[in-house]
Write a structure and sequence with these properties.
alpha+beta; 8 helices; 23% helix
């Protein structure tokens, strides 16, 4: 789809047809980041060039660099969150550079990709979002939880447990913690190191369907985390309290799990409501997403 008339631009159209959008993560491009040295050096060069030219800059900022790597212009995050200001800014750059529209330079693709895992592992996709809206809360956060076979088998009832409708069991604490520790809304992260303090992680399963070897158990969960919004700092109220409900389908004869789904029924972080879901991904889906 081509961009509309320049008098009524759409920001996504402008970015797709006149720019090559690039994001730079502090986790990778900071001095101590994990990215390639050349990438870290280039980001620092851009920052220092903007500084020398007295162009708008910041840790969270829009930087426009020309094809020859020349610094063109910047926009602060508050202005960039205003569609009218952002569109006007992009239009000024297009006019200044006499840029002709073209197709997107990079094919759209998922921003979050599941990590590599063993063939018999279970991969869970977690999505969470604050319901407050604005700034940090405009987009959902994603994470991936990989459970080894030794871990996901802990979702199953004990082999000695008699199976009948309403049979119940608890997920062992270490496994419950692994499911619970990422259940919080968007915040600032610079590493993949988990820094949640898990005070409560309780998941009770109750058998609700038993047809031959195929079974379904309802999951009722309760989670309480201490998780600061910023790394290395936060307030006394940085707690994420959640009540979750869901199910797990499994084969009692083969002792395999077919699927798991959990959603928050009630979730509050530092006084603000958020929602989260945790869904197992089939190997076919993972393969498709990785292409």
């Amino acid at each position: 789809m081509r961009a509309g008339p320049l008098s009524t631009p759409k920001i996504i159209d402008l970015l797709n047809h006149y720019f090559v959008p690039v994001t730079s993560s502090n986790e990778e491009a900071d001095d101590g980041g994990t990215g390639p040295p050349a990438e870290k050096a280039e980001r620092k060069r851009i920052y220092l060039d903007f500084y020398g030219k007295k162009l708008p800059l910041g840790d969270v900022n829009v930087y426009i660099v020309g094809p020859d790597r020349t610094s063109i212009g910047g926009l602060d995050i508050n202005s960039a969150n205003d569609p009218e200001k952002m569109a006007a800014f992009l239009m000024r750059i297009i006019t200044q550079l006499h840029t002709a529209p073209g197709p997107p330079a990079v094919k759209p693709h998922p921003q979050s990709v599941a990590p590599a895992s063993a063939a018999d592992a279970m991969v869970l996709h977690l999505v969470s979002r604050s319901m407050a809206g604005g700034s940090w809360h405009e987009f959902p956060a994603e994470n991936w939880i990989v459970l080894s076979r030794a871990e996901w088998t802990q979702l199953l009832p004990g082999e000695a447990l008699p199976l009948n409708l309403k049979t119940s069991w608890e997920i062992p604490r270490p496994m419950a913690v692994k499911l619970a520790e990422w259940v919080y809304p968007q915040n600032e992260e610079k590493t993949q190191v988990n820094r949640s303090r898990v005070d409560v992680a309780s998941f009770r399963l109750t058998l609700v369907t038993l047809e031959n070897a195929m079974s379904r158990a309802r999951i009722d969960g309760k989670v309480r985390l201490k998780h600061t919004f910023y790394p290395g700092g936060g307030g006394p109220d940085d707690f994420a309290d959640s009540e979750l409900v869901g199910f797990v389908d499994f084969d009692t004869a083969k002792r395999t799990v077919q699927g798991l789904r959990l959603v928050t029924n009630k979730a509050i972080y530092a006084g603000t409501e958020f929602r989260a879901s945790l869904v197992s991904m089939s190997r076919e889906t993972l393969d498709a997403l990785g292409k």
